[in-house]
Design a protein that fits this description.
The chain is 18% helix and 44% strand. It contains two helices and seven strands; from the N terminus they run E-H-E-E-E-E-H-E-E. A four-stranded mixed β-sheet has the order 3-2-5-4.
Amino acid sequence: MLAMTDAAAEAISALTAQDGQDAAGLRFAVQQENESGAQLALSVAPAPEDGDQVLGTEGGARVFLEPEAASFLDDKVLDVQQDEQGQLNFAVMQQPES
């Protein structure tokens, strides 16, 4: 299952709170598939779509995973990273082996 860092959860909460929709979340969907993986589309959605896997945190951050995206992200961690301009970007990384 996709894991989420505290920083990512805070960023998602801040992003969805801007719309004033309590049920909103960050939605991942497969945009394009290729041999090396998949290109994912990321959007703020007011609610999950039928069949979406829903992940939530105690802080209220919600992530909706389209079924295909859920299988690609099963062993990943969602984090945020800051670029040279100070913009926050979501990053998907491999979960550490336990």
